[in-house]
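User: Hi! I'm a student and our assignment asks us to look at how structure tokens line up with a sequence. Could you show me two examples?

Assistant: Happy to help. In each example below, the sequence comes first and the structure tokens follow. Example one:
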Amino acid sequence: MNLADLSALDLSGAVGRREASCVEVMTDHLDRIDALDPVVHAVVARRPREELLAEAAAADAELAVGRPRGWLHGLPVAVKDLNDAAGLPTSRGFVADAPPATSDSLVAARLQAAGAIVVGKTNTPEFGLGSHTYNSVHGTTLNAWDQSRTAGGSSGGAAVAVALRMLPVADGSDFFGSLRNPTGWNDVYGLRPSLGRVPQVEGESWLSRGGVDGPVARTAADLAALHRTLAGPDARDPLGLGDPGAGPGRPVRVGWLGDLGGYLPMEAEVLEICHRALPSFGELGLEVVEAALPAHGRFGGPEDLWRTWLPWRHWLAGSALAPTYADPVLRARMKPEARFEVEGLLGDGDRPPLSAHEVMVASELRSDLFRAVLGLFDEVDLLVLPTAQVMPFDARLDWPREVAGVAMSSYHRWMEVSALGTLLGTPVLAMPAGFSAAGLPMGLQVIGRPRADDDLLALAAAWETVTDHHLRRPPLLGP
């Protein structure tokens, strides 16, 4: 048996019972990475094998004297290449000669506090922009199920590494579907936690509440365990959550949002796969009903979604990238998608600078969108829609220029299905929906009530009792 094929919790149990050593676990995972990563390019900035085996041996020695550090004791992880891990470079898919980080991000620190050994980083698009993991530093991460297709992004490296059993679990992050798209396209689970559930302790603390860190896993139990490791209050986050994340009670009704009443262009196969998955909710005793995104106050319905989203995106992403853009040499190296965000903030020949008033208007629309969905939660307990508007596309493309015959106006307009969950700030589960005739995965987004993360983790566990997605193996792994 290859230990890399076990779930994280099964590995944890085997190590804790001394049925498998940390050295054996590390060896099997490194062998899997050596065999498959040259094909898919998911795990980057790897540490030397001898160092990792020495750390695994030290972890075995700790267990021998009764000093376990946590449920991830001796298990390998790789930190997404947007987060720092001390001793490893953080390239963000842009800086080829990035120096080693001198300290750990909160995510890296919490993984290691639970006993994990960091083996490297997981690949991400340049600056994490766009749901296609390619960059000039580490190359293109390819789909776990079809290596001619995109893995999604920006947590593409994490999703592929977990799907191919190169890592037992991984951290991801999500601003605009960056955790949901790649998990849906690689048949694994991901959770975009409630805003504040996983603390934000670096950078500006008050206004920049869009991106969140969250777990990626092959099984629902692993997802919940990693979520518990990453979540929890930190005094450095003034807006962090301290409550446990439980909802008002067991969900009984699911609202199917689909393509938002025809507003979102969507490939027919995406909707077909998701519709085939909906009866599984019925097997769990949940009623599925058609739902529509309502108007409320200044928010007029789905047609207002993009104008609510785009100014906020320009404001946050453009502000983060403005220092790089200010350097003419670095600006010339930035991909067009990155320049698009900065120029959306600062203006260019075709667009005036974004004003504070426009940002405020977008925030007012967002507030009314939240109130609209609160009203919807009086009628249903969960909201469901696909994780993407297209099936995994050709990895040689940068992004889909057209969806279902409709031209896309930007590099991320084809991902608009992700905007709702982000704008709401509520927890969103990405879970497997099924496969196309060509064997490509698609996922479902499940939007939970505000702060009810635990409801979604319970749903993921129940989903495994009526589906077998977590048991399927990508062709690269063999039978």
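Example two works the same way, sequence first and then tokens:
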Amino acid sequence: MLERLAPPPETADMAPARARPWRLLVLGCLALAGLSLLWPSVPTYDPWAWIIWGREIAHLDLVTKTGPSWKPLPVIFTTPFSLAGDDGAPLLWLVVARAGGILAFAMAFRLGKRLAGPVAGLIAAGSLILADEFIRNFFRGNSEGILVAVCLWAIERHLDGRRRDAFLLGLAAALLRPEVWPFIALYGLYLIAADWHAKNRLPVKTTILVIGGGLALGILWFVPEYLGSGDFLRAAARARKPNPDSAAFAAHPFIEVFNRSASVLTPPVYIGGLLAFCAALYAFIKRREDGLILAMAAIGTVLMIAVAGMTQAGFAGNLRYIALPAALVCVLAGAGWVWLVRSTAARWGVIAASALALAIAAASAPFVIEDINELDLAGQRIKAEADLYGTVPEAIKAGGGEAKLKSCGTVYTGAFQTQAVAWYMHLHEMDSEIFAFPPGTTIAPSFSSLSRDPRFPTIAKTRKWVIGSSCAAAK
């Protein structure tokens, strides 16, 4: 099927096809991400861990025994970012994460436009913008925006005949999510086979690229984890300890993933995606069209099954893990609705097609309005979280400073605040604990029960935090 999806791959004897411009696009995304720092800009739980690990690698003191699963790609950025200090490093990572999310919108538009024109591109990008939790996730520093961007970009580079670029972008995606590994492995084998067929001999450069990429993938996933925790598979073990509200604890986790993820997109998006699939399947059977849409639908389906299967096996199954298949559906939705309107115009005329387009827009409007309201709520939640995590330095200062707070013993905080406290207190993640026993200091959110623990009398308060110390009780 792949031979029908793009021009022949480049070889040593032929110039690569002219690819779509990307440098100015990436710079523009970075610029917009930089401007976004004018809004609340504080990482959430997982990104704090990547930022901490970057600092620890820079100091040759990596510890990954606690916290979320190891993820290589973010740490490639956060290690040099750590040189920017306590305030600069988190902001630099947020710029990268947000630029990835913005690039995902751009790539959704470009792929949708490629499939069915600019209107399809606008539907694709708009659907992704309105997808539940997508903006909220990458705005707080999660990596799903980057994942979607590099995967959609990889598809575009493949279609442009720049398949080595596509492979490298796929490797970047594989450094973010393990369910991408089988796809990049198969694509690497395809590259070798295609070049071998074109040259009638083993393509040495391509083989080195694929094997070297695979080795790098394994090293970056497993070696740092072993050096930091003593366990090559610590990340997998951690991923099988999900939060209490995880789909993994449902009676039927596999089915529960699909139940929960249904709300990520609205019915008009799913219907548009289904229309695109049905039209492409009919055209493929009739041999009138290539299989690009079918391939994208197949990839999205396999990814969903992979996430659901991993959840059935005990992994977390968080909704953000289905961002990539959801993005593929958004792209297909744009193509599906445009196909329907064009088909109507071809059969019944422009007036009928215009009436249909207006009817589709009117039927979709309530869903769009609801999603816009959800974006407003997401913005409020982003601000509330930023207000909490972003005021940790204020709490440390109010408590007498880092040295004083460490002098009493272990530092304790709430379950989801351990990373932020560890970062600003210059601790390993494992040294910022949640089960409090004297002696020690508590840096606890004012809404938590830990902030009222009588074993740690209050020594300072801020707008969001209560600082307690067992040493104060001993005096």
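Here is something you could point out in your write-up. The CA atoms of residues 54 and 79 lie 4 Å apart.
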